[in-house]
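ok trying this again, last paste got cut off
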Amino acid sequence: MSNLITAFEKYFEIIPGNTVDSKNRFYRLRYQVYSQELQLPDFEAWRFPDGREIDEYDNRSICSLLLHRKSKNIVGGVRLVLCDSADPSQLFPIEEYAGHSFDNNLVDSNQLPRRTTAEITRLMLARNFRCRGQEAFYAHGMDDSNIKDSRSDSRRQFPHPVLGLLVALVQMSSEYGITHWYAGMEPVLNRRLRQFGASLKPIGPLVEYHGRRRPYLDTIDNVLGQMFREDRAFWELITNHGKLYPDSKKRECRVEILKQGLL
């Protein structure tokens, strides 16, 4: 077992958001981060008088929490908005807010396999886990101030808690048969995810989407295939040694063979 997997299992545990209690913990964390700390547009505290940030997409979403084993504190959480099973034509959040700006040469939302597409949203860390440099200014806790040092940062024995949320994302996606990820992200987050080999392809310019964000879309096999090629330890952690999305490994191996002219 790699040192990365050992460290993850030592410090963190993924809690599926499949109970009333776990969902409420997630909603309260969202309220704390977006409404109280960052005070983002459309997340004003008065909109959520019970201290739970909930929107119209939660009734077609799944979520996970990341727990710090020693302290039993919630590290962060992430949500996947799923296709509306009753009406697959219903828009994903990023389509509703930024669909008008999609580059038609890069994406045709009408050609997407909508039932196996999901949108990554509400990826965030609790304040105690984003307290270095400029991390407190971002819900995800990933800024550019120490971008070159995140893998070797001696203050952390695990590269970054967001990597734990990627583990949760892949687990949820595998369970629900998801093949494509939408996302609306600040470019800094996608730059930082690239350090883990997990960046997504941009499909349009910056738009106003709860702040300045850019739309992204990619297949999970593409994302994980890139990770397999660039950092095998991350890939093994994220895919549980290839048990989840094994095709990402096969695709990259085939690409390498083609490059070598063996096929």
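PB: full thing came through this time. The chain has one domain: 3-259.
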